[in-house]
Structure formats: C-alpha cells, structure tokens
Amino acid sequence: FSMARMHSRKKGKSGSSKPMKKVPGWAPYKEKEVEKLVVKFAKAGKSGSQIGMILRDSYGINSIKAATNKNVLAILGENNLKPHLPDDMLNLIKKLIAIKAHKEKNKHDATAIRGFTLTVSKIRRLMKYYKRTKVLPLDWKLNMDRLKMYLE
C-alpha cells in the first residue's frame, strides 16, 4: 500500500532512510560536545534541519538523537534558543512570500496563483496540527499582509 502525493496526483515513497539508532564506538564526539555544537550553530542563526545536516556532513554525527538522547529542538529549548515558529512552517512562509512577489509581477500566471493557494492550504493544515499539539498558541493566526515579520 503506498500513499499518493497530495497535490501532484503521483504515487511516491519517502526518499530517505533512518540513520542508525545507536552511536558507533568510533564516533568522534560525545554527548556534551554534540550539545555544544548544536548550541553554537543555533546561535549562528542556523535552523534545526540545517544544524542536523551540518553535523552529519561535516562532523560525522549520524544522529543527534542517538548521541544525546534528545532531539535538536529539545536541546535548543533547554538553552532558550527555540525558534518562535517551527522550521517547516517558516519554509512554507518563505515560499509564500516568493510566490506572492512573483504574482505581483506576473498577474496572469495561473500556475503561480494555484501554487499560492496550495501553499496557503499547507500552512493552514500545519497550523491546525501545531495548535492541536500545543506548539503554537490557540489564538495564533497567519497575517497575510505582514508575512515578512514571521522571518525576523
């Protein structure tokens, strides 16, 4: 049984495989060192997913959760560096800003209008999820007129 893509009418499988659950004996960094690296990159303005990729590619840390028994957001929360909005929501808002700018220049681009609608619906769906899981406050609303304020 395979799930279908929501907006493209294609079937699809996830492209990634999970990293190992345990830390190998040759791992170069221990728990506290990994946490310090996460905090360092967060202070440099990197998002949670960017931190994970940097540690994987440059430092050889295959799984932050396996190394520290905490995920990136938990580490950031302990150090008061947690972002005000989740990464996926911020990425969709950035995409929405780009589409909106494109729509203003190209008023008759129907594909962009559809992309705008689909992106807004994805944001609304995520918003419902994050309100349900108490990541966002229940009275949080997306202000379409002031989208850039979310990126600050």
Describe this structure in words.
The chain is mainly α and 152 residues long. Helix content is 52%, strand content 0%. It has 6 helices and no strands. Helix 1 crosses helix 2 and helix 5 (87-105) runs antiparallel to helix 6. The protein is globular. The termini are far apart.
What's the gist of this structure?
The protein is mainly alpha-helical and 152 residues long.
Number of helices: 6
The coarse overall form would be: globular
Radius of gyration from the CA trace?
A: 19 Å
The main pleated sheet reads as: none
Separation of the first and last Cα atoms: 42 Å
What's the SSE blueprint?
Elements: H1 31-43, H2 48-59, H3 64-68, H4 72-78, H5 87-105, H6 110-132
Helix pairs in contact: 1-2, 5-6
Key terms for this structure?
152 residues, mainly alpha, 6 helices
